[in-house]
Fold this sequence. Notes:
Blueprint: E1 2-6, E2 15-18, E3 24-30, H1 33-47, E4 51-60, E5 63-73, H2 82-99, E6 104-109, E7 113-117
Antiparallel strand pairs: 1-2, 3-5, 3-6, 4-5, 6-7
Helix pairs in contact: 1-2
Amino acid sequence: MIDIVRDDGDNTNDFVKTKSKTYWSRIYIAGDINAAKQTCRELTNDMGLCVTVKPSTYIYSGGCEEGLEIGLLVYPRFEKSVERVKEATSKLADLLMLELHQKTCLTVDHSDTVLITRKLKGERDDGVL
């Protein structure tokens, strides 16, 4: 939906408000932020998306590591369906796990938190190579 918020008569300073249904998702993953940004650029160019990338420090029992939080949402300029944003979140999480050489990451949205893990070649079910 598009509304003209202010019309100054000569179209030089018009403000337009565009609304979309709200939906957001986040990916939480450790790894190099610059490599992640490149992966995000490639996917956003392919799919017509807009994402945010924020640095994050993960502190957990027994250690800590640097990583990032990636935000995806229904952005009115590149409006996508909720299903398309969910698909992009899943695809980007998978790509980032490969590019950043991570075994796990989280995806989070309004209703679900999903832990994604990948088994490395030759790894047993208990995580030992």
